[in-house]
Amino acid sequence: YQRRVHGDSYCETYQKMDSIKEKLKVLEHKVEEMKKLGKFLEALDILEESLNLRKAYFGETSDEYIDCQDKLCELSNMVSLFFLQKGKFDVCQEYLRKAENLSHNRPKCRAITLNNYACLYRKKGRHRIALSYLEQALAIEKKLDIAKDIADTHLNLCAIYSQLNQHNDALENVLTAIMLLQDDLLQEPNGPEDKSTRDKVSALVVAYHNLAVEYEYLKRFDDALKSYVRALTLSQRHFGEEHYLHKNLMRIVSEAGHQVKFRDLRCNAGRLRMRRR
User: Minimal CA–CA distance to 78: which of 115, 53, 106?
Assistant: First the structure.
């Protein structure tokens, strides 16, 4: 009799777990629907409900919980940047705190959150605090050894040092970012470019643009021109002339006071492409 009771108990437990897993699938589907509709705050609430369920039934050390924790941290960071772009610094900081609380023992999420704190303080004009956050992020990323993430942080450091008029420090950071991205891209397998590869190329285009800007500040105009050519060549080769990145780069270069040299720049870029063929 006791064995039968225990058997019923196990059966009920399995049925309950199946019910929970089914509910989690429904919640995951809703999250994706909300994200596709651009309703990120709604997606955040649903994901938080999912996290609480996973904590209750699987525990905080389970893969189910940790996977959801990472997604919630990532989405909280995304929402924080949305409010940052709107100039709503207090709301941005609120979501960064949420991300920070979720990033304990999750070093990659922690580094992303620290980078976004740096973006917030940079916007506020508090560059020294921003630098402190970036140095913390960089220390974490170096341990994780993910080249693209380290390069992104060096690009952020470049931007802040540039605003502080420390252009040699900015130059050092952008050159480090370029070296990391180039080495990483050389290890990519041959074949069609996936999203990861295109993201790296996009970061490299931005890095060459930033390098050109720093060379200009340092009055190394020939080096600046070569870097602009490199950025334009990369963006056209990998994304095409109609891509927003290439168009933005063309506009930025044109508006940056290069009208006199702009025709030569385009010709140089064309010659560079011809030589590579």
Answer: 115
- Rg, the chain, Cα only: 24
Cβ partners under 8 Å of residue 80, min gap 6: 92, 93, 94, 95, 96, 99, 116, 120
Reading the block at residue 55, the tokens are 């904590």
| Residue 62 three-state SS | coil
Looking at residue 271, the DSSP 8-state letter turns out to be H
What is the identity of the amino acid at 28? E
CA dist 247 and 241 (Å) reads 7
Q: How many angstroms separate the CA atoms of 230 and 6, rounded? A: 71
Q: Which residues contact 31 (CB under 8 A, 6 or more apart)?
A: 43, 46, 47, 50, 71
Three-state SS at 242: coil
Per-residue pLDDT of 222-272, as tens digits, reads: 898 889 989 988 998 888 888 888 888 888 777 655 543 544 444 444 333
Q: What separation in angstroms does the CA of 176 have from each of 20, 118, 180, 189?
A: 48, 19, 6, 23
Which residues fall within 8 angstroms of residue 78, CB to CB, at 6 or more apart? 40
pTM of the complete model: 0.80
